[in-house]
Amino acid sequence: MSDATRARIIAIANQKGGVGKTTTAINLGAALALEGQRTLILDLDPQGNASTGLGVDARNRDLTTYDLILEDTPLAEIIRKTSVENLWIAPATTDLSSADIEMVANENRVFMLKDSLANRATKDFDIVLIDCPPSLNLLTINAMVAADAVLVPLQSEFFALEGLSQLMLTIREVRQTANPALRIEGVVLTMYDQRNNLSRQVEDDARETLGDLVYATRIPRNVRLSEAPSYSIPVLEYDPASSGSQAYMNLAREMLDRHLATA
Ligand code: ADP
Ligand code: MG
Asked: Where are the transmembrane segments (predicted)?
């Protein structure tokens, strides 16, 4: 990393639920960690699926991202090591579902996460991946304000691109106000099915509209990806040879190559 005092922060966002945000956070995180990047997944979804999927028991989440944002608890006190070397998680619980409302009252409301990550709080990491909730609410805005870039998982399904224009509008608004330097890291096609016309159609449309922003790597629909969370491990540990594992390793490498090329 060029700036050793803090990590590169990437918000994984899409206001649609079930498009692969959490799956991407867990498995891209694990893949980056295997590539030697010290990686933190910051769970910003009250459902806490990334936390559960990485083995943080719901009964064992004393300090969470809620405390980070609303109680000024230092990041170092809430992070947990995962089963993967170089991979940590800042867990979330349902507490976070009320955070949105509590944050509205604060005049600093869109900068609360950014402030929590200031003062070299992320200096021990190379990359922080923020798993956003399925909404363009204040939590997601906080993630975009704190982030260097947004990574967008795009489900290879009908209507995928319609939701995207709303997301792009929000990114533009954040740029015009609280975070002018916010970039789009890239758009990754998820749950891709080579044999399905619709998948190919979504891919063609996405590449035509978004050009190089769309990663060459596509994440295939792979049952191993949906099974791994019930074992509390990333697919790279559950089934390293699976197509899902291979795809997330390829995505990690593509991301790192791109970054090195533009650094
Ligand atoms: P989001 O975080 O955007 O709501 P998830 O990552 O939780 O989406 O994915 C929604 C569901 O789809 C989960 O059950 C997950 O296991 C499954 N899933 C995600 N990506 C894939 C994939 N590439 N292949 C098969 N199942 C997937
Ligand atoms: Mg999720």
From this structure: none
